[in-house]
Design a protein that fits this description.
The complex is a heterodimer.
Chain A: E1 3-7, E2 10-12, E3 18-25, E4 34-39, E5 45-51, E6 58-60, E7 68-73, E8 78-83, E9 92-99, E10 107-110, E11 114-118
Parallel strand pairs in A: 2-11
Antiparallel strand pairs in A: 1-3, 3-8, 4-5, 4-9, 5-6, 7-8, 9-10, 9-11
Chain B: E1 4-7, E2 10-13, E3 19-25, E4 33-38, E5 45-49, E6 53-54, E7 62-67, E8 70-75, E9 85-90, E10 96-97, E11 101-105
Parallel strand pairs in B: 2-11
Antiparallel strand pairs in B: 1-3, 3-8, 4-5, 4-9, 5-6, 7-8, 9-10, 9-11
Classes of the chains: A mainly beta, B mainly beta.
Chain lengths: 120, 106
């Protein structure tokens, strides 16, 4: 059974940093693209970043480029989203999502989400 | 980025109704269009991918159609568990989502 479990959310001040984790199980981790998608309170869905399964290439939304870093630890089947220079507009629930293949941004499994609040 | 526009933004319907939601892309995306629904406090769930392919485990009352710039999601006979917010998403290029359609009980 595919499972994605996010952690690391919380309250952080503007300009601060936070690292989110996503522990994956039930599938061959490196064979699939993995992504982060966020949802501000009461708002719609916004793609944040993707890491390809085959070569580990990373892609970012313009809104987070240069501030967020997506990485993975294949030995731990865990993904990380390092978020620096956080802004109020980064406040959202962050979901980890699995692609349907190594390069896809079609998301067939999602975690339960972790809430990040950026506020002073 | 490719923009997706859903209509309507909200919809009231009754159990047993047939419902259609549309999604229009700002440029052609072939069939790289997916549909999700999301219930309050829960993660989105994939319903339809590649415009018309039913995700495993999703009831057959859900169907999708379209290509290019115009797409539809149809629920043939609404069930109580279908009341949720529906999103389209394109996977043709940098992923983007529609603004959502809130489906409410009449």
């Amino acid at each position: 059974e595919v499972q994605l479990l996010e952690s690391g959310g919380g309250l952080v001040q503007p300009g601060g940093s936070l690292r989110l984790s996503c522990a994956a199980s039930g599938f061959t981790f490196t064979s699939y693209a993995m992504s982060w998608v966020r949802q501000a309170p009461g708002k719609g869905l916004e793609w944040v970043s993707t890491i390809k399964g085959n070569n580990g290439a990373t892609y970012y939304a313009d809104s987070v480029k240069g501030r967020f870093t997506f990485s993975r630890d294949n030995s731990k089947n865990t993904l990380y989203l390092q978020m620096d220079t956080l802004r109020a507009e980064d406040t959202a629930t962050y979901y980890c999502a699995k692609g349907i293949d190594s390069g896809s941004s079609t998301f067939d499994y999602w975690g339960q989400g972790t809430l990040v609040t950026v506020s002073s | 980025d490719i923009q997706l526009t859903q209509s309507p933004s909200s919809l009231s319907a009754s159990v047993g109704d047939r419902v259609t939601i549309t999604c229009r892309a700002s440029q052609s995306i072939s069939i790289y269009l997916n549909w999700y629904h999301q219930k309050p406090g829960k993660a989105p769930k994939l319903l339809i991918y590649a415009a018309s392919r039913l995700q495993s485990g999703v009831p057959s009352r859900f169907s999708g159609s379209g290509s290019g710039t115009d797409f539809t999601l149809t629920i043939s006979s609404l069930q109580p568990e279908d009341f949720a917010t529906y999103y389209c998403q394109q996977s043709y290029s940098t992923p983007t989502f529609g603004q959502g359609t809130r489906l409410e009980i009449k």
